[in-house]
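User: Just a sanity check before I run the rest of the batch. Below are the structure tokens for the first item. I only need the designed sequence back.
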């Protein structure tokens, strides 16, 4: 029997290390399509099967590990004897003797074809989403520019004798379009709250340098509503036009007479009232029938969504009140987190 204190002789240790090295190399060669026992494994032989484009990368990684003591980590292509190309991942560390001299490398070689496949799929899908987003952005920019061109042409045609009025009116309209994009850009899902949009449009008319009109604004919000994305610009332009008309035709008797805008949201309906003090509806005015009004209201009728938005005019002793009703599908209950659903 061997005594417990007996140790393998130097030849036995060398044989064990050689066997261990062969086992490690055999495991590496198993990842390049060569069966164990069919070759004399060596590091140089393994390098021959690394794709030529990646060979320098692997050699540099090994050199860095040797000279700087860093962990060897590299992903590269390998060419199997049948010509097929696969992905390998290699990680390892340099083992050194007591003198600090490198004696061998221990690590792991694994096939990562499946991982690379899923990585490529993720990149492909991300690229498709990016391209779709770019196409959508281009489409929206084109539509908005065409809309702006139409607004400018319409204003110029109807204010040929005073181009300044046409330009100033176009500025307020373009500002409404920009407002919607600004509100959409504040949230990941492009949501626009009705209770955000109305004050912003009013502010555009009361900001110094933009006419500085005086408008009373009141909000009563029972349940926040958000606008349908594709109709947000049309709704903003309509409300801007209605407020512009009220400011234009107001006949103030004293300083207390102001254009007023109120928003009341109850359940799933948004009710907006725009009051023009001292205003008078023209003889024969009928908005629903399309008679008795000018180009401003023609624009409103052209922009009016087919479902979910209606406009009524009321003549009162104090002036003209325009009632705008918004309901599904133009608006819906706020789908944002509770903290983001209030102005």
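Assistant: Here's the designed sequence for the first item:
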């Amino acid at each position: 029997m061997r005594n417990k204190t007996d140790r393998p002789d130097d030849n036995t240790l060398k044989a064990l290390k050689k066997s261990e090295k062969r086992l490690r190399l055999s495991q590496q060669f198993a990842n390049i399509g060569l069966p164990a026992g069919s070759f004399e494994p060596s590091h140089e032989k393994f390098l021959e099967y690394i794709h030529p484009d990646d060979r320098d990368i692997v050699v540099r990684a090994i050199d860095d590990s040797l000279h700087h003591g860093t962990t060897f980590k590299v992903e590269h292509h390998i060419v199997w004897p049948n010509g097929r190309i696969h992905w390998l991942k290699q990680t390892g560390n340099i083992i050194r003797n007591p003198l600090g001299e490198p004696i061998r490398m221990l690590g792991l070689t694994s096939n990562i074809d499946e991982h690379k496949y899923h990585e490529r799929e993720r990149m492909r899908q991300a690229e498709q989403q990016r391209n779709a987003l770019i196409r959508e952005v281009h489409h929206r920019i084109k539509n908005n520019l065409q809309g702006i061109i139409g607004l400018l042409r319409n204003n110029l045609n109807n204010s040929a004798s005073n181009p300044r009025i046409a330009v100033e009116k176009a500025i307020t309209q373009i500002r409404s379009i920009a407002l919607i994009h600004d509100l959409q850009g504040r949230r990941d899902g492009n949501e626009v709250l009705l209770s955000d949009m109305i004050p912003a449009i009013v502010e555009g008319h009361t900001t110094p340098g933009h006419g500085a009109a005086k408008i009373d604004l009141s909000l009563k919000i029972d349940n926040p509503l958000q606008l349908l994305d594709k109709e947000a610009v049309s709704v903003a332009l309509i409300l801007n036009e209605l407020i512009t008309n009220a400011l234009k035709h107001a006949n103030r008797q004293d300083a207390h007479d102001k254009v007023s805008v109120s928003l009341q949201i109850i359940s799933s309906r948004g009710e907006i009232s725009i009051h023009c003090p001292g205003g008078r509806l023209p003889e024969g005015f009928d908005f629903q029938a399309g008679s008795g009004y000018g180009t401003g209201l023609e624009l409103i009728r052209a922009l009016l969504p087919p479902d979910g938005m209606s406009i009524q005019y009321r003549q009162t002793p104090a002036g003209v009140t325009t009632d705008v009703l918004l309901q599904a599908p133009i608006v819906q209950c706020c789908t944002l987190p509770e903290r983001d659903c209030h102005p």
